[in-house]
């Protein structure tokens, strides 16, 4: 009965996630230095972290930050949008940038979408054929 009650409240999932995060932290060897983050990976990780925190996946976000070596303090959203050449409308700021990026590509890059809950974004400055290549082979900006 206790397990069912905790599941219904959503607490059991949070407890399990917290245990996983604590186990990871206990096993994580802090003496081994992390490789430096590339600029591209820093931006990708930040998009993912913003999405995770928005959806209340705080333990997952904590593990991502710890495991990736991402800075503890999140990047400023305006800085992130500027780095990715994302143009947001006023409603866009209420959801993670990743939602706008996905919305943009789902709607074929059209400025207007039928769903008003997702933001409009401009094309990223990466040609589509460039995105399928490994990071080392992509055009450096």
UniProtKB/TrEMBL annotation:
Location (main, coarse): cytoplasm
Assigned GO CC terms: centriolar satellite; ciliary basal body; motile cilium
TM ranges: none
Swiss-Prot/TrEMBL keywords: Cell projection, Cilium biogenesis/degradation, Cytoplasm, Cytoskeleton
Domain FGFR1 oncogene partner (FOP) N-terminal dimerisation: 34-104
InterPro entries: FOP_dimerisation-dom_N (IPR018993), LisH (IPR006594)
PROSITE patterns, A to Z: LISH (PS50896)
Compartment(s) of residence: Cytoplasm, Cytoskeleton, Cilium basal body; Cytoplasm, Cytoskeleton, Microtubule organizing center, Centrosome, Centriolar satellite; Cytoplasmic granule
GO biological process, one term: cilium assembly
Family matches, as Gene3D superfamilies: 1.20.960.40
Pfam families cross-referenced by the UniProt entry: FOP_dimer
Superkingdom to which the source organism belongs: Eukaryota
Summary of the function given for this chain in its UniProt record: Involved in the biogenesis of cilia. Required for the recruitment of PLK1 to centrosomes and S phase progression.
Family to which this protein belongs: Belongs to the CEP43 family.
Protein name in UniProt: Centrosomal protein 20
Lineage: Eukaryota, Metazoa, Chordata, Craniata, Vertebrata
């Amino acid at each position: 009965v206790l397990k069912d009650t905790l599941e219904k409240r959503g607490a059991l999932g949070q407890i399990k996630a917290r245990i996983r995060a604590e186990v990871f932290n206990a096993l994580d060897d802090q003496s081994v230095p992390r490789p430096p983050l590339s600029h591209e990976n820093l931006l990708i990780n930040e998009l993912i972290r913003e999405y995770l925190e928005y959806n209340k996946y705080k333990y997952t976000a904590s593990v991502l930050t710890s495991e990736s070596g991402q800075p503890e303090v999140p990047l400023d959203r305006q800085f992130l949008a500027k780095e990715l050449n994302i143009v947001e409308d006023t409603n866009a700021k209420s959801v993670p940038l990743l939602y706008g990026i996905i919305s943009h590509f789902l709607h074929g890059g059209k400025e207007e979408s039928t769903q008003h809950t997702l933001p409009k974004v401009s094309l990223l400055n990466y040609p589509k054929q460039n995105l399928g290549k490994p990071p080392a082979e992509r055009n450096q900006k």
